[in-house]
Design brief:
The chain has 247 residues and is α+β, with helices and mostly antiparallel strands. Helices cover 36% and strands 13% of the residues. Strand 6 and strand 7 (169-174) form a beta hairpin. The chain binds zinc ion.
Amino acid sequence: MTQPPLTPPADTIELRWEVIRTCFWMRDQLGYFIGTWGSVSVRLEDGFLVTPSRMKFEEIKPEDLVVVDWEANVRRGHRPPTTDVELHRQVLLQRPDLGALIHSHSPWASVCACSHGSIPVLTDDMAAVIGGEVRATRYVPAGRDRELAEAAREAIGPDACAVLLANHGVVAGGRDLGEAVVAAQIVERGAMIFVQSEALGGATPISEQHWRGERIRYLESPPKLEPSPPPPARPSPVPQATQEPPT
Ligand SMILES: [Zn+2]
């Protein structure tokens, strides 16, 4: 089930720092971003805020983030947006209940993405935070950004807050950026549990009636989950890829 969208946040310096801190959190704490692979977006009133292209995370300042409108035009910013921009735009257009997205190549979700199958709802946290089985796109060769975005838009469906990109990675979202961070972790955990359960003889999903009930209970029960806030972004000596690949 989808839920009414939250009021989009204002495009503030603090929001932009939160996006940058999220990139560090994804790379340094969770290992979901590698080099410059990985991107984050947040829905605004007039489009969405998204990370820039071909920048090391250590070098990104709030003014380097880019605001893109729903027609794919850059509205504010002096940098080109991430090459994942069309992926973010189309998924945000498809799912107005999602206020923020994280695209990563997290390992277990990528394992499942290579099977082209769905991750079923196996745990209560996946029922609550993801809200449905996570489907996979068809395979889209690297570099076909628009085609990949269209495939993600078709595959995500009305329920799950995530979609697997075949032979590539995953997009996870939430009502706000904090919830998207949690969703990225729950999808990764769900993917690991699925693979391991299959290895033990077969995963047994929660029935649709029960996961839908848990999803409704979660959406109607404040407070929302809050991720552990990462510390302020500081340059770190982690080696970076020298070039951003085409997604
Ligand atoms: Zn990617």
